[in-house]
Amino acid sequence: METKHKVIFDTDPGVDDAMALYFALAHPDIELLGITTTFGNVTVEQATINALYLTRVAGRETPVAQGVSAPLSKAPGQPPGFIHGDDGLGNLPERIAVPGRAEDCSAAEYIVKMARAFPGEISLVAVAPMGNLALALKLEPNLPKLLKRVVIMGGTVSEPGNVSPVAEANIWNDPEAGDMVFTAGWDLTMVGLDVTHRVVLPYDFFVRLAQHQQHRATDTLQHAVHFYSDFYSGIRPEIGYGCFGHDVLAFVWLVAPELFKTQSGRVRVAVEGIANGQTMMDKLDSIFYPQPGWGEEVPHTRVCIEVDTTACLQLIASTLNSDWLKPVISK
Ligand code: RIB
Ligand code: CA
Predict the structure, then answer these.
(1) β-bridge mates for residue 300, sequence order
(2) Predicted structure pTM score
(3) Which residue of 46, 72, 287, 317 has the lowest C-beta tally within 10 Å?
(4) Ligand 1 pocket: which of 153, 172, 201, 227 to mutate (most atoms <8 Å of CB)?
């Protein structure tokens, strides 16, 4: 029986996006059909360059479709070069030349095209601002039925935010798009800061990975994580020298949901004001709220609220240390 998850990966690489991409390429239960890019950690143009680079360096010719360059209505901000580097990969000292260019269609068109080609089969894993999903929904209102599921890294329910006391970066970067995702009606799982802040990846892990694999892909990842760890260890000294792997946990959920405890409920996004980007969850289904926006028509989201940290780290380690890398595809 075919057990692989057919996946489209919506991403803004980004260091933890790179970890997630390599986890997806390495895991035997995942078939990565294509990548869609967006602004966020870097500009969308740089995100596309990075997606092409990371895949080709790992020996894959995965299609890459470029997506939105700005939020739906919020004023665009500057990419956080101080977290991911100006190039999104910790300011790599050099890049080899790799072949490949973005698809002729947009990210949203690619998502719709693939969902129609494989109805009910595709898992969309989105770990960046959600504009591509919002546009795809506008192009194809039946998308929630055409996709098997959507898994997002974004939002937070109980954990403090990382761009404001209440907001997580991916949702805050495009709150309107985020709210469209939470109200679309697909099978939706939210992997937010409530769990990603429970999983710290020590920099040493990436040093050992690079030593074990002896490959440009894992050397690249090690360099990127070094920069990223400088940031995280600076703001969160209690985690030691390392980082949060945020985006990789969306894929961990996909292949090992038993490692998470979840709660189901309506989730909405504050789209303006000081709380913009906040993901609010209705945890008390039995209460009727007079405030509009919380009616029974709002679909439920499966929200990850706890994670088995040790098992999660073991899965990430065994997956990335496995024999998955192919010879670099260079020009
Ligand atoms: O809040 C964490 C998210 O913001 C991750 O997707 C990371 O890559 C950044 O974009
Ligand atoms: Ca990301």
Answers:
(1) 266
(2) 0.98
(3) 287
(4) 153
Torsion, Cα 10 13 17 20, to 10 degrees, reads 70
pLDDT surpassing 70 at residue 286: yes
Query: To the nearest 5 percent, what fractions of the chain are helix, strand and coil?
Result: 40, 20, 40
The Cα–Cα gap between 259 and 242 comes to 22
Q: What is the pLDDT of residues 220-274, one digit of tens each?
A: 999 999 999 999 999 999 999 999 999 999 999 999 999 999 999 999 999 999 9
Written as six digits, the tokens of 192 are 């937010």
Measure the CA–CA gap between 19 and 294, rounded to whole angstroms.
36
Return the closest-CA partner of residue 30 out of 44, 16, 9, 11: 9
- As a CATH number, domain 5-320 is 3.90.245.10
227/83 Cα distance (integer angstroms):
7
**301: CB partners within 8 A, 6+ apart:** 182, 188, 189, 190, 264, 265, 266, 267, 281
Provide the pairing of β-strand 260-269 with 5-11.
Answer: unpaired
Q: Establish whether 246 is a catalytic residue.
A: yes
Query: For residue 170, which of 71, 22, 23, 46 has the smallest C-alpha distance?
Result: 71
CA-based torsion, 312, 315, 320, 321: positive or negative: positive
Mutate to test the pocket of ligand 1, among 170, 199, 231, 249 (most ligand atoms within 8 A of CB): 170
Q: Are 20 and 127 in contact (CB under 8 A)?
A: yes
Angle between helices 248-255 and 309-320 (to 10 degrees): 100
Based on C-alpha coordinates, what's the Rg of the chain? 18
b vs e for 171-182, b when ≥16 Cβ sit within 10 Å of the residue's Cβ? bbbbbbbbbbbb
d(CA 269, CA 172): 9
Considering every ligand atom, which ligand is closest to the CA of 232?
A: 1
